[in-house]
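Slide 14.
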Amino acid sequence: MYHFNLYKAESNWYMRLVHVASGKIWDNTNNILADNPAWSNTAIALTFNSYIGGHPITLPSDLPQGDYDVLFYDAATPASSDAVLKSNRIRWSGNNLGYPVYQMLDI
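Slide 15: predicted structure.
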C-alpha cells in the first residue's frame, strides 16, 4: 500500500483522486475511474491520528496504475464548491506500490 501523512490541523479533511492522463476521478463508492461521478462518491474521508499528529493516507488498493493529483479539502459535507487546500501529485504502480512525483504547494 502507499501510505503518507497529511500534517495539517483541519477538522474535516477529505481527499479526491484525479487521474492525470484521462482527467477521470476515482469513484470511491463504485471503485472505478469515472468521467462524471457524484461528488459525494469521490470524497474519501480522512481520520486524524493523534499518535502521529496528522491524517494517515492509504490509497485504494484497486486504484488503476498512473499519475494522480491527490486533492485535499476541509468540509463537514463534501460539495463541489469546496476549495482545494492542499494537493500532491503521485505515481501509482497499480500493485500497491507508489511514490510521490513531486510535492505541489499549498493553494
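Speaker note: The radius of gyration is 13 Å.
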